[in-house]
Structures are given as structure tokens and as C-alpha cells.
């Protein structure tokens, strides 16, 4: 008999396109995932996908199981939400601020899905350009903060979302394209373009330039990722942005990128909430939908357990 975990495994295999990516989405080792697939194939007596194909190609049996997963899993998730609502806690407030200013692309689908399921919850969203969001969270002015800087604070819980690589965006004609990775000293003669936030909230300073005692030649602010990319593409400077935020522009050939240092820099993104809200039904559901949105909409990230 098929189990829910089997349906989730097949769906993750479709979404990830490979055993490696499916294992990451399910927070399993590749060995554990292979064991689950072998288990379901033995129960059915049929293979679900064709081995050594990329992307994954399903057999007819696999396609039938995938169709079942697409019907059953959403129904189970909806039923779970409905039961939680019956248990209470339908109404509430979810005021959010984003320190990672490239996060709107994956966060908006999660918000839209959440709004459909929890219409009684009041939602507000803002970018934290000009105020400190974590103290506002602690005061109760906010309910959730997306941040890559989990500052220890009494009463604040940090839910890890995923790891991502911070890359240096450079113009295609920049001499840094001749290098496999960027060294801190390479930025001493560059104009660094970044969001209008404090230096202490920028990974390129705290994790790359400051430890090496390097200052860029100049800095420049831009509010939007697209604006930053356009400035970089026109040779007006360089910028540090998440790999997934840069990917569409890299695919289009508008700019180039290089890792920061030989090993690269891999920040972790968190959802910060107050401890008192950890057990709230709608907060749990929003965090779950956010994680699902991250896995489905972003490339190059590493999901966390």
C-alpha cells in the first residue's frame, strides 16, 4: 500500500529533477531517498522512473503516482489547515519586514497562498531600509523578520530557511572575469553598489572586506535589485547579491559573477519570530509555506533541516 511519504518523494523527484535535489527538498540523505524509492517500487512491482536520465523521466507508472500526489497532497494540506482553524487561532496579525531585499520574488507566492488559506489574518509587508526590524519585532511592532543576521535577542526564535551563495556581480567586460574567484584586495579600486542599509547588515563588508582590512574605492546606493544590476552591467560598479537573485540576469548574459574568495561565502537566511508565536497555527503554516516557496522558486540554494 502506498503511503503519503511515497507520494511526497515522487513529487520532490519531479520538482527537483534529480535524486540530489529531491533529497535536499525532503531533508533526507540521498541514500534514504533511494531506499524510499526502492520501497515503493517493490510494493508496486514496477519502476517509477528511468535511471540515469537528466532531467528525471518517469515511467507510465511513475506518471500515475505523480498525478495521484498532485491530487492527494494538496487535499491533505488543506484539511490540516481547516482542522487547525477549527481548533482556534484563525484570526491574527502577520506584519513582516525584510532585511534581505532580494526576497520578494519567492516571498510573494508564499504570502499569496497564505492569504487564500487564512483570510482572517491581517498581513502587512515592508522593506527595512530605514529602521532596525529586530528591535521592532521584540517590541511587538512586527511579527516576522526575514534576515541573514540572527542577532541573539531574548524572546526571539530564528527559523532557518536556506543557505545561499553571495556572489559578486560584475560587468561582462570587467577584468575580474579573468579570475576564478574574487579576492578582497580586488575591490580596493572598485565602486561597490549596495542597498541603502547600514554597513553592519551587508555580508560583503562583515564577512569579506572588513576581515581583510579592505575598503572599496567608493560606494553607491540603489533601492532595487534591477537598478543594481543595470548599474553593474553598464560598468558603474560591482555588487554583492544572492546567487538566486542574480541567476535570471546571468542566464540572459547581461552580467557576470564570481565567488567571494576561494571557498565562497554562504550566508543563511532566517525567519525571526517571537517565541510566544512559535505555536500559533497560522504562523506555523506560514513558515511551512515559505519553506515550500523557497524550494520551488529558487535555484542554487541549500535547504536546511
Automatic annotation (TrEMBL):
UniProt xrefs under InterPro entries: LysR_HTH_N, LysR_subst-bd, MetR_PBP2, WH-like_DNA-bd_sf, WH_DNA-bd_sf
Keyword line: Activator, Amino-acid biosynthesis, Cytoplasm, DNA-binding, Methionine biosynthesis, Repressor, Transcription, Transcription regulation
Coiled coil: none
PROSITE patterns linked to this entry: HTH_LYSR
Every HTH lysR-type domain range: 2-59
GO MF annotations, alphabetized: DNA-binding transcription factor activity; transcription cis-regulatory region binding
Pfam families per the UniProt record, alphabetical: HTH_1, LysR_substrate
Protein name: HTH-type transcriptional regulator MetR
The organism of origin for this protein: Oleispira antarctica RB-8
Amino acid at each position: 500500500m502506498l503511503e503519503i511519504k511515497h507520494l511526497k518523494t515522487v513529487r520532490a523527484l519531479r520538482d527537483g529533477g534529480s535524486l540530489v535535489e529531491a533529497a535536499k527538498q525532503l531533508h533526507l540523505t540521498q541514500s534514504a531517498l533511494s531506499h524510499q524509492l526502492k520501497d515503493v517500487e517493490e510494493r508496486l512491482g514496477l519502476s517509477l522512473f528511468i535511471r540515469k536520465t537528466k532531467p528525471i523521466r518517469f515511467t507510465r507508472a511513475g506518471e500515475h503516482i505523480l498525478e495521484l500526489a498532485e491530487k492527494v497532497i494538496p487535499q491533505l494540506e488543506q484539511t490540516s489547515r481547516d482542522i487547525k482553524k477549527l481548533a482556534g487561532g484563525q484570526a491574527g496579525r502577520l506584519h513582516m519586514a525584510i532585511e534581505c531585499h532580494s526576497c520578494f520574488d519567492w516571498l510573494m507566492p508564499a504570502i499569496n497562498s497564505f492569504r487564500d488559506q487564512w483570510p482572517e489574518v491581517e498581513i502587512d509587508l515592508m522593506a527595512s531600509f530605514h529602521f532596525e526590524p529586530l528591535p521592532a519585532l521584540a517590541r511587538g511592532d512586527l511579527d516576522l523578520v526575514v534576515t541573514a543576521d540572527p542577532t541573539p535577542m531574548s524572546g526571539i526564535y530564528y527559523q532557518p530557511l536556506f543557505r545561499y551563495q553571495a556572489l559578486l556581480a560584475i560587468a561582462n567586460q570587467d577584468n575580474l572575469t579573468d579570475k576564478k574567484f574574487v579576492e578582497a584586495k580586488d575591490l580596493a579600486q572598485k565602486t561597490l553598489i549596495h542597498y541603502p542599509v547600514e554597513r553592519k547588515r551587508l555580508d560583503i563588508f562583515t564577512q569579506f572586506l572588513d576581515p581583510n582590512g579592505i575598503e572599496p574605492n567608493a560606494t553607491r546606493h540603489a533601492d532595487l535589485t534591477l537598478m543594481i544590476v543595470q548599474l553593474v552591467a553598464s560598468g558603474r560598479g560591482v555588487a554583492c547579491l544572492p546567487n538566486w537573485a542574480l541567476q535570471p540576469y546571468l542566464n540572459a548574459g547581461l552580467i557576470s559573477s564570481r565567488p567571494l574568495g576561494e571557498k565562497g561565502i554562504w550566508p543563511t537566511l532566517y525567519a525571526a519570530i517571537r517565541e510566544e508565536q512559535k505555536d500559533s497555527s497560522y504562523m506555523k503554516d506560514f513558515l511551512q509555506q515559505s519553506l515550500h516557496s523557497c524550494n520551488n522558486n529558487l535555484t542554487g540554494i541549500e535547504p536546511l533541516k
